Amino acid sequence: MLLNGDCPESLKKEEAAAEPPRENGLDEADPGDETTSQEVIVIQDTGFSVKILAPGIEPFSLQVSPQEMVQEIHQVLMDREDTCHRTCFSLHLDGNVLDHFSELRSVEGLQEGSVLRVVEEPYTVREARIHVRHVRDLLKSLDPSDAFNGVDCNSLSFLSVFTDGDLGDSGKRKKGLEMDPIDCTPPEYILPGSRERPLCPLQPQNRDWKPLQCLKVLTMSGWNPPPGNRKMHGDLMYLFVITAEDRQVSITASTRGFYLNQSTAYHFNPKPASPRFLSHSLVELLNQISPTFKKNFAVLQKKRVQRHPFERIATPFQVYSWTAPQAEHAMDCVRAEDAYTSRLGYEEHIPGQTRDWNEELQTTRELPRKNLPERLLRERAIFKVHSDFTAAATRGAMAVIDGNVMAINPSEETKMQMFIWNNIFFSLAYVAPTNDLNGVRTYNAVDVEGLYTLGTVVVDYRGYRVTAQSIIPGILERDQEQSVIYGSIDFGKTVVSHPRYLELLERTSRPLKILRHQVLNDRDEEVELCSSVECKGIIGNDGRHYILDLLRTFPPDLNFLPVPGEELPEECARAGFPRAHRHKLCCLRQELVDAFVEHRYLLFMKLAALQLMQRNASQLETPSSLENGGPSSLESKSEDPPGQEAGSEEDGSSASGLAKVKELAETIAADDGTGGAAADGRERAGRHLCKELGGKAVGSISSTAFDIRFNPDIFSPGVRFPESCQDEVRDQKQLLKDAAAFLLSCQIPGLVKDCMEHAVLPVDGATLAEVMRQRGINMRYLGKVLELVLRSPARHQLDHVFKIGIGELITRSAKHIFKTYLQGVELSGLSAAISHFLNCFLSSYPNPVAHLPADELVSKKRNKRRKNRPPGAADNTAWAVMTPQELWKNICQEAKNYFDFDLECETVDQAVETYGLQKITLLREISLKTGIQVLLKEYSFDSRHKPAFTEEDVLNIFPVVKHVNPKASDAFHFFQSGQAKVQQGFLKEGCELINEALNLFNNVYGAMHVETCACLRLLARLHYIMGDYAEALSNQQKAVLMSERVMGTEHPNTIQEYMHLALYCFASSQLSTALSLLYRARYLMLLVFGEDHPEMALLDNNIGLVLHGVMEYDLSLRFLENALAVSTKYHGPKALKVALSHHLVARVYESKAEFRSALQHEKEGYTIYKTQSGAERPLRPAPLTAGFPAPQFTAPSMASVLEQLNVINGILFIPLSQKDLENLKAEVARRHQLQEASRNRDRAEEPMATEPAPAGAPEDLGSQPPAAKDPSPGVQG
Fold first, then answer.
1. Partner of 236 at 20 to 30 A CA spacing, among 62, 92, 337, 919?
2. Which residues, in sequence order, are bridge partners of residue 93?
3. For residues 1202 and 1066, is the Cβ–Cβ distance under 8 A?
4. Phi, psi of 961 (to 5 degrees)
5. Which among 707, 742, 714 is positioned nearest to 728, based on CA atoms?
6. In which residue ranges is the amino acid composition biased (Low complexity) (predicted)?
């Protein structure tokens, strides 16, 4: 939590409770459940203030909380403008030193108003180094080079460039309301219809980045370390400084502080020089000797503390930028030292030893988790260790590929080599790692006590894929045969099992839908497993049960695994399956398995209902069963025979499906005409139905309950099953075929349908991949998705999806080729090779020539190529002969082989022409996928006279990192409950829950995280609806900054956040800011996708309305008419959105007094409303009619513009009187009680229902337009 909005990064507040909180039952509750309606116990910690006395400045007071540690006060002081130059001090209370790591509540006598004294301590070498590092950080605090270079978890943010820092408190100045001429004309390239897509505006130069030069050089002196006789005088180290005035001085860091000595570059003289000034702080010494330093350092610190904390806090995982401006490479002693000394395998904060990653990762998992504070502590520890491990693993993987780590088996060939660095194990492989990582992710999420997985990170760098894993204690001393006590090390020949492993894995089998099964080993003995045979169990020397090699956690995907003698269902055969894939490890995604099981559950319930009706039909003489309207009301639903299910069950919304299921379950229970108690009857009915149809019809493994599980070893090469299990194996094979068919007949059509209805709005490759994965569709099905889009009747309404899909297909195919291409490039030819590849891929120049490394540097002696070179040290120049024709031929070939899609293009220009792509978008996509960083400049892609890229344009190549994302479960439950409350219209309660979720997210993740970002966005929206614009602005500003820092400055999510912020700025009368934010969002949208996207209609409506508000009518019309065109294309000419668009255009014509055009548009809109609602709908003013006195037109009122802005952004205020509100509340409460009652009745016994449906919003609240692709629900007040 941030205190009064400006506390430093270090103050990630500890919010864990002071008193043990009463348990709020949240962990058992289902996230969407109503349990949280009993008031949630908010974890309070009452803060108090203390007075700080520091040398040389006025005393000041500081707000602290009892949970904080003393060291957090240290951090605050090191961040404050007036005390930031101190690092080596202790805090004293009544003459007693406070321990660094003790919590404030444990300090005796510390209370409201206590005085803490800052006392300077003597330096040690370590403290002196920390001090110099801190001073260097202060000097670099506004310099963005770390963010461009992707180091130390720095990343970029450009929001302040567009807001001029006038949000939040200072935003209360009613800026731009007096209609002082705001310059509203956007740059030419932002206007609708512009073909220009410049790159430079992506990273505008921030004024603060031209750093004020305080010193020319600050570096370690060559006289280090001090000789013995000087050590005995207290010398710790020597620094060399050149001041801004060009004075060269040598400085001694001693135990008592810093002073000038008489050494020069060539002559060592450690005696003090004049002025003989000893200062405890290096900054104070430099202030004495350099007037420029004194002036500029003060200005720099002022600017530093004015920046929003979110611009400075480190992100949990490194974010890389794919473009960067040309930067000066400045001398930097700390950076130089880091590169060569301490960081090679040693982490700073544990002096003198490497970190035992495995021990840290496993110990955090063992922390207690009985109540909320314990779980928070545990999740925070897991997250922190995990992000540290990811950073270390990434550094190690790069060191391995760059050839800086010795292999532990150097004699083997390159791809078999293994490495150990910093207690992390590295190996090179390509396919298995991502599957293995998904397995680790899954088992971590199930989180069974006593079962341990390895820390796993997969890093793609310079064309190689490296897996980094923590090391099981003792594994390196033993043979693998001795270690493995569960699973198989030779692909199923010898298989062993272990009762403890079976017991642990049994607990994961239900959530992961894994079947416990028997396999045969090489001696034909039956061995029982509860995972795939590849999964190995090893007990480490620490006594923990580890599982590893989880690459076959999920069942195989038969569409990509041709098995001789096995026929696939006809849906698969029609689509051209099975097709052989590159490798045999194609698995179904966990999301698909879950969706398939749920689909089968609905099918099962429908079959049950059918059975029931047939039984009831034969029992017509007992009319009682029909009186409650059960079966008759169900008839409509269950008439279609199960065969049609696949097609009809496309509603991807599990909520509605599960609601139906509950209804059915109740009916079955109520109608079991045995006259027994309902619960009894339901139990019997369930068993009876399962027996009658469960196993046979839907593939359930149990005859008494609905339970579908998969055997992950089916179709595994080399695995054999005992005779006794043949029936089970046959059923399992069928289940796998059904799942493969389900993906093609349900999930892919469901995705296309969602895209058509704009339920999902992908904007770039990454967002498309995400919506596919959420539905369990692997990327290898991309070609199939595109084929279905092409065949779709409303093809043009899916234009945007098709474009994104084709772009993704091309860049992924190019990435596959690039990978192998890079493996043949030596380090010195890297930038030449990458620029040559980009020229062949994107430049219209027909025959680019690769620049080989300069001849004068090529040595005369070429050594013979060794078999065991380090991975990244190839020395051939085969890459230089690639041509654009050859590359594009390979891309088309790869698209056909991998995605089974025929690209119709032989050059980049044909691709752009045929599919309407943009070269700048393709450059962004390939750079993000491969880690390339290019120079920020305008590239002439279309020039036929010179290539677009030179080797100077390739600045860097970064790793692309995949890792597990640990979750904050309690915070997430609070967030979901808050969303549910909001959907029911309880805004205040929802707001409280979401605020609490925000506290918990901050607690677990620290201040910066994707999930915190979603939380802030929803809070801002709620505050806005409740009329608190200032709070909405402050929260949304944080959401924008966080999205830029954590997801990327041009990520589609960031574009969304900019739009929301613009709306709240407009409502707070900051018109020019609102406009510049919208223009920024439009520019990013053009760069990332282009103009022709449904989201662009929303953006242009926003821009048009704001321009209308500031009386820029002609400009406003350009945007609104573009929005109208785009809406008409994507929603069809008869959609309500289009009617609204007509109305907005008409209003502008009206303001321009062009009534004929206005009338025309109002008529169009009116016609749509009439056809849609069948009656005149008093939603909009009726069309203007002639024959009234000429009206006096003035500018539209801000209120009316704001009202329209709210409508198009999916926020609808419904005017209700106080009495209406009371009635509404009573009605909602009444329904709520009814739901509760029926739920309690249901809870008695229900073997079949898997999860309760989340409560939907009551109908009374009026319908609202779909929210602007906002994960938060559309909200009404």
1. 92
2. 96, 116
3. yes
4. -115, 130
5. 714
6. 1247-1259
pLDDT at residue number 1214: 59
SS3 1178: coil
Instruction: Calculate mean pLDDT across residues 39-67.
Output: 77
- The answer to whether 924 touches 827, Cβ cutoff 8 Å, is no
For residue 668, give both structure tokens: 């079955």
> pLDDT of 1199-1208, one tens digit each?
888 888 888 8
Beta bridge partners of 427: 418, 467
Confidence band of 1029 (pLDDT split at 50, 70, 90):
very high
> Measured in whole angstroms, how far is the alpha carbon of residue 1123 from the centre of its chain?
30
Q: Is the pLDDT of residue 1193 over 60?
A: no
- Write out pLDDT tens, residues 384-417: 999 999 999 999 999 999 988 999 988 988 888 9
Residues 6 or more apart in contact with residue 1261 via CB below 8 angstroms: 985, 1214, 1224, 1276
Distance between CA 1238 and CA 1243 in Å, rounded?
9
The two tokens of residue 953 are 């344009």
Domain ranges of the chain: 48-121, 357-553, 792-852+879-963
Cis previous bond, 275, omega within 30:
yes
Question: What is the distance between the alpha carbons of residues 682 and 666, in angstroms, rounded to a whole number?
Answer: 8
- Residue 209 CA to residue 780 CA, distance in Å, equals 44
User: 932-935 and 323-324 as β-strands: parallel, antiparallel, unpaired?
Assistant: parallel
Length reported for the chain: 1277
Residue type, 989: E
pTM: 0.84
Count other C-beta atoms under 10 Å from residue 1225's C-beta: 12
Tens-place pLDDT, residues 229-284? 999 999 999 999 999 999 999 999 999 999 999 999 899 999 999 878 899 999 99
Pair 415, 451: CB distance under 8 Å: no
Q: For residue 457, give every residue at least 6 positions away whose Cβ sits within 8 Å of its Cβ, in sequence order, or none.
A: 389, 390, 393, 394, 397, 437, 467, 468, 469, 961, 962, 963
Q: Quick check: bond before 631 cis, omega within 30?
A: no
Residue with tokens 């749509």: 1168
* Cβ-contact 1127, 1093 below 8 angstroms: no
Question: 840: closest CA among 850, 848, 832, 851?
Answer: 848
Among 168, 18, 20, 34, residue whose Cα is nearest residue 1061:
168
32 or 449, which is more confident? Answer: 449
User: Do residues 963 and 436 lie in contact, with contact meaning Cβ atoms separated by under 8 Å?
Assistant: no
Are the beta carbons of 706 and 602 closer than 8 angstroms?
no
DSSP annotation of 562 reads -
The residue written with tokens 């493996």 in the block is: 823
Q: Are strands 96-97 and 89-93 parallel, antiparallel or unpaired?
A: antiparallel
Residues ≥6 apart with Cβ < 8 Å to 1100: 192, 1082, 1119, 1120, 1122, 1123, 1126
Query: What is the rounded average pLDDT of the residues 31-36?
Result: 37
Q: What 3 state SS string does 395-414 have?
A: HHHHHHHCCCCCECCCCCCH
Question: Are the CB atoms for 682 and 669 separated by under 8 Å?
Answer: yes
**pLDDT score for 480:** 63
List 457's β-bridge partners, or say none.
Answer: 468, 963
Q: Measure the N-to-C terminal CA separation of the chain; round to a whole number of Å.
A: 28
Q: Which two tokens stand for residue 441?
A: 């992710």
Residue 122 per-residue DSSP state: -
Burial per residue of 871-888, b for 16 or more beta-carbon CB atoms within 10 angstroms, e otherwise: bbebeebebeebebeebb
Strand ranges in 151-234 using DSSP code E only, listed in sequence order: 215-220
Residue 1216: band (very low, low, confident or very high) from pLDDT cuts 50, 70, 90? low
Question: Within the chain, how many helices (H) and strands (E) appear?
Answer: 42, 23
Of 304, 305, 281, 284, the closest CA to residue 293 belongs to 284
What's the topology of domain 48-121? Ubiquitin-like (UB roll) (3.10.20)
